[in-house]
Amino acid sequence: MNQPETASPPAPRKQEIRDRFDRLAEERGKWIARNWFFHEDDRNYMRFLVPAGLRVLELGCGTGEILHALDPSHGVGVDFSEQTIDVARGKYPELDFVLGDVEDPATLEKLEGPFDVIVLSDTIGYLDDCQALLASLHPLCTAETRLVVAYYSHFWEPVLKLAEWFGNKMPQPPLNWITPDDLGGIMALADFEVIKREWRQILPKHLFGIGRLVNRFLGTLPFLRRLSLRNYVVARSLRAIEPKRLSASVVIPCRNEQGNIEDAVRRMPKFCDELEILFVEGNSVDDTFEECERVKSAYPDLAIEVFRQEGEGKGDAVRKGFQEARGEVLMILDADLTVPPEALPKFYEAIANGKGEFINGTRMVYPLERDSMRFLNYWANRAFAWLFTWLLNQRFTDTLCGTKVLRRDHYERVVANRAYFGNFDPFGDFDLIFGAAKLNLKTVEVPVRYASRNYGTTQISRFQHGWLLLRMAFFAYRKLKAF
After folding, report:
1. How many domains does the chain have?
2. Residue 299 and residue 195 share a domain
3. How far apart are CA 280 and CA 146, in angstroms?
4. pLDDT category, 307, cuts 50, 70, 90?
């Protein structure tokens, strides 16, 4: 039997917070204007994390500036300060604002989810029970929902208190000063998985343009960025993930690989019910294309397709293959077979079971076969892995492993957002890596045993492609860090 709902009085701390924000509601705009540089930078990074046109829920929305800046297709803000909600409704009538306590289950039950993004901007500092609030959000999530949490760094507590004392910052009640490790642990207890973290604004004042330069070029550097004022965390709900049996397409770009074509098919495990193999041949000087056609005829029981790419480079071949593929899961296998086809079931299981959303192979875990990777290539891979881990805010040990896997619907989102990066990548690896990072996809690496070639020679030029990789790193720095 349902019990009648009764509103229990708020705890003294919560009542104090509510009363304070009621009193400050009309003044909040003045405080934002006074600290415009901080708020502008914060909104810009939130827009980077949250693309426009999504269903967005903001818990603890204040007067609605963040929610409005995210340009949602459907935006809902919740706050328990009645005066604050009144101001938000007057400023942004196109958004929906709900008066209620975000820690009250009855408030969340009234919301019409699910949402694409759930935002907690500074709200985590005011909660009575962070774990309970996070755990209560799962009914509003799908497997695609991203939880974005922004909050003040605990290092800045004395500085912010001093700023309040001198009247340079809006007064606040005592906060929960949570470290990134604390928040990661709380999220794990609440069944949320952290996808990435970022630290921004080492100097939250404009200072005639000095603040912008410092934040852009110094504040993003490793180690130094940990001293920034703002912490950002992106996470996903683990309870919303459901294993699925998906169809798959394996795209094999091939150039001068005649001797490997049949082995690629013969050694390919049948790891799902609907599996197709697509060869994309590009400008070979041997009989690779003819061999692809022969193998297709020799294995009529398998779904094999053969295409010739119109452009040049592996990246162009991958895009051609993904365009022609029919599977729900898109996979790349290099035709040199240095990553064995027998490893593909591990990649498939990782994505079908929801362990990750962008699956990257890594050759840097197991010992390498003799002559499989040259000395300079090995250490260059190590260096670039560290560099791209910092740039992407997700761990990578091997960005250049050719085997990469993602779902078709995620690839279509990468394509739709490709304009942010442009057509910049001749390899094809970084188009996917950067696109997945921008979309906040969960990256997982699958270790593979890297073998030496049995046929042909490598088509990687250490110095020419090394220079391209340096350019790629600088490009990523401008697009993902110093923007």
Report:
1. 2
2. no
3. 35
4. very high
* Amino acid in the structure at residue 343: A
Q: Which residue has the tokens 């912008």?
A: 212
Rounded CA separation 458/273 (Å): 33
Residues 207, 267 within the same domain: no
Q: Are residues 72 and 163 in the same domain?
A: yes
pLDDT band at 6 (very low <50, low <70, confident <90, very high): very low
Are residues 343 and 229 part of one domain? no
Environment class of 371 (CB within 10 Å of its CB; exposed 0-12, middle 13-18, buried 19+): exposed
pLDDT in tens, 223-258: 999 999 999 999 999 999 999 999 999 999 999 999
Q: Does 190 map to a domain?
A: yes
pLDDT tens-digit series, residues 55-109? 999 999 999 999 999 999 999 999 999 999 999 999 999 999 999 999 999 999 9
Cβ-contact 431, 476 below 8 angstroms: no
d(CA 453, CA 257): 10
Angle between helices 429-438 and 375-392 (to 10 degrees): 20
- Would you state the structure tokens that stand for residue 233, as one six-digit string? 């965390």
Domain boundary among 204, 237, 270: 237
- Measured CA to CA, the distance from residue 123 to residue 141 in angstroms comes to 18
pLDDT tens digits, 413-468: 999 988 888 777 777 788 999 999 999 999 999 999 887 655 555 555 555 566 77
Residue 271 lies in a domain: yes
Query: 372 lies in which domain range?
Result: 248-481
Query: Domain holding 168: CATH number?
Result: 3.40.50.150
Q: Say which range, 7-16, 351-360, 442-451, 453-462, has the weakest mean pLDDT.
A: 453-462
Which of these three, 237, 266, 290, is where a domain ends?
237
Q: Can you read off the two tokens belonging to residue 111?
A: 């919301």
Strands (E), 296-408: 303-308, 329-332, 358-362, 404-407
DSSP-derived 3-state class of residue 249: strand
229 and 366 share one domain:
no
Q: Taking all residues of the chain, what is their mean pLDDT, rounded to a whole number?
A: 91
CATH number of the domain encompassing residue 355: 3.90.550.10
Residue 158 and residue 279 share a domain: no
Q: What residues does 240 pair with on adjacent strands?
A: none
What are the start-end ranges of the H helices in 153-248?
157-165, 180-189, 210-213
Q: Are residues 444 and 471 in the same domain?
A: yes
In this structure, are 223 and 360 located in the same domain?
Answer: no
Both tokens of residue 425?
Answer: 């990548």
Tokens of 338: 């240095």
Q: Is the pTM of this model over 0.85?
A: yes
pLDDT per position as a tens digit, 382-391: 888 888 899 9
For the record, the structure tokens of 274 come out as 């609907």
SS (H, E, C) 454-472: CCCCCCCCHHHHHHHHHHH
